[in-house]
Specification:
The protein has 11 helices and 10 strands. By secondary structure, the protein is of the alpha/beta class. An 8-stranded mixed beta sheet has the order 1-8-10-7-6-3-4-5. The chain has a two-stranded antiparallel sheet with strand order 2-9. The longest helix is centred in the last third of the chain and has 16 residues. Bound molecules: S-adenosylmethionine.
C-alpha cells in the first residue's frame, strides 16, 4: 500500500465554502479532499476508461467527480446537501456525461454502474457498504473509509479486527487496502486518518445455501466474538427460546469441521458457511423455525 503527497486545495475549498454558504457538517462527513494528488491516485487505482459507468457517493465540491467525468463514459453522483448539489452543477456544467442525483444515498434508487468510487461520509459507512453489496452488480469499488473501519473490513481470522462487520462484508466481497490517506489531506482536518480499499464481488470460496440464515446466524453469535462457539450458540439459542442442547446437535452435523471449542474470532468464512448450512438442515427438518427477521 502506498502513502500520498500533499498538493493543497484548501484555499479553493475555503473559497467554495464561502461562495455556497456551507458550514461543514461533521455528521454528514463534510471533510473535503484538499489534495490533487490523492484525487488523482484514486482515479488511477480505479483504472477508468470510456467503457465505465461510475457511481460516486457524496460528490461534495466535485474534486473526484470532475476527474471521473474526464475518463468515464458516464458518472452518476449522489449528494445529499442542496448547497453542494448547486456547487456540483456549476463545477460540472461543461460535461455532458454527468448525472447529479440530489438525495440520501441510503434511500434514493441506485443507478446501474460497473464501478463505484467514493470518499464516504463516515456516518453511513456501514449501511451504504451493505446497500452497495446487496443491491448493485459491479466490477470494482474504490472506497475511502476511516482507517480503523478499513482495518476491520480486511481483518483476518484470529485478529482483533476480525468481527461481524468483517464477516458480513467478506461474505460478499474480496477487500484490499490500497492507499493510506492522512487526515491532513482533508479540509476541515478530521480527527482520524483514512484508507482507500478496493472491493470486488467475491466469486471464489463457498456460499451458504441460504444467505438469510447465514446473516441471521452471524447476527446471533458474533456479539460474543471472544466466546467459544459452543457457548455463543447456547447464548443465542437461549435468547431465541430454542432448546440450548440443540447447539450440540448443530455441531455434530459438522463432521468435525468445528468442534465448538474454537473462539469465534478464529473461525474462517468457509467454516461459518458450513455452520449455517448445518443450521439450515435443522430448519428444513422442522427442529428450528426459519428466521423471521
Ligand atoms: N467527494 C468529496 C471529496 O472527496 O472532497 C466529498 C467527500 S465528503 C467526505 C462526503 C460527502 O458526502 C459530503 O459532500 C456530504 O454532504 C455527502 N453526504 C453525506 N451524507 C450523505 C448521504 N446520506 N447521501 C449522499 N451524500 C451524503
Amino acid at each position: 500500500m502506498s502513502t500520498t503527497q500533499v498538493s493543497s486545495l484548501s484555499d479553493d475549498i475555503r473559497r467554495l465554502l464561502n461562495r455556497y454558504n456551507v458550514r461543514p457538517d461533521k455528521k454528514r462527513g463534510q471533510s473535503f479532499l484538499n489534495s490533487h494528488s490523492v484525487a488523482r491516485d484514486i482515479i488511477v487505482l480505479a483504472g477508468l476508461s470510456e467503457k465505465d459507468d461510475v457511481l460516486e457517493i457524496g460528490g461534495g465540491f466535485g474534486v473526484l467527480t470532475q476527474l471521473i467525468a474526464e475518463k468515464a463514459r458516464q458518472i452518476h453522483v449522489i449528494e445529499i446537501d442542496p448547497r453542494l448539489v448547486k456547487a456540483l452543477r456549476d463545477a460540472l456544467k461543461d460535461f455532458t456525461n454527468v448525472n447529479i442525483i440530489e438525495g440520501d444515498a441510503l434511500l434514493v434508487d441506485l443507478p446501474k454502474a460497473n464501478k463505484i468510487i467514493a470518499n464516504l461520509p463516515y456516518s453511513i459507512s456501514s449501511k451504504i457498504t451493505f446497500r452497495i453489496l446487496r443491491e448493485m452488480e459491479f466490477d470494482d469499488a474504490i472506497l475511502m473509509y476511516q482507517k480503523e473501519f478499513a482495518s476491520r473490513l480486511v481483518g483476518c481470522p484470529g485478529t482483533t479486527e476480525y468481527s461481524r462487520l468483517t464477516i458480513n462484508v467478506q461474505y460478499y466481497a474480496e477487500v484490499e487496502e490500497i492507499l493510506e490517506v492522512p487526515a491532513d489531506m482533508f479540509y476541515p482536518v478530521p480527527a482520524v486518518d483514512s484508507t482507500v480499499v478496493r472491493m470486488t464481488p467475491r466469486k471464489k470460496g463457498s456460499f451458504a445455501r441460504d444467505d438469510a440464515v447465514f446473516h441471521w446466524m452471524i447476527r446471533g453469535i458474533y456479539p460474543y466474538p471472544n466466546k467459544n462457539l459452543r457457548n455463543a450458540l447456547q447464548i443465542w439459542f437461549r435468547n431465541l427460546r430454542i432448546d440450548k442442547s440443540l447447539s450440540d446437535e448443530v455441531l455434530l452435523r459438522l463432521d468435525g469441521v468445528l468442534t465448538g471449542k474454537e473462539r469465534l474470532r478464529s473461525i474462517n468464512l468457509d467454516q461459518l458457511v458450513r455452520l449455517a448450512d448445518a443450521l439450515l438442515v435443522l430448519i428444513e427438518e422442522g427442529t428450528i423455525a426459519y428466521p423471521r427477521e
